[in-house]
Amino acid sequence: MTQSLTLAPESIDAIARRVVELLRVDAAAGLIDAVEVAQLLGVSRSYVYDHLGELGAIRVGGRWRFDRATVEAARAPAEQPPAPTEIRRHTARRVPARGQLLPIRGAAA
Q1: Which whole-number Å values give the CA distances from 70 to 30, 52, 54, 66, 85, in the listed order?
Q2: pLDDT tens-digit profile of 63-76?
Q3: 80 or 90: whose pLDDT is higher?
Q4: pLDDT tens-digit series, residues 82-97
């Protein structure tokens, strides 16, 4: 036999307030996310995830967080790789073969 657990609205409110309090402590403690680390170091977000250990990452609520001071100490400015440039990918367009193609210059017909 399975019993269900029902929480009183006051308990749910208390839990929600505690979660908000913990999140504020995170922000006040100087924890930053991977996007902020990437911007701080001038690297891609994937670079940050590839170097979690070096950057002192900790798991908070299922997400990676970083201590700003640890991140700044871990990477000296001279050691930072250049920021990646955005690569635009073009997809090949297929042109249906209809009619005659134009001749190539200098090629015999």
Answers
A1: 10, 11, 9, 7, 26
A2: 899 988 888 887 65
A3: 90
A4: 556 666 666 666 656 6
Higher pLDDT, 90 or 40: 40
CA-nearest of 58, 61, 20, 62 to 37 is: 58
Alpha-carbon distance values, 28 to 24, 31, 48, 85 (Å): 6, 8, 22, 32
Residue by residue, DSSP assigns the chain as -PPP----HHHHHHHHHHHHHHHHHHHHTTEE-HHHHHHHHT--HHHHHHTTTTTT-EEETTEEEEEHHHHHHH--GGGPPPPPPPPPP-PPPP----SPPPPPTT---
Let me know: does 42 contact 80? Beta carbons within 8 Å: yes
CB 75 within 8 A of CB 109: no
pLDDT given at position 78: 46
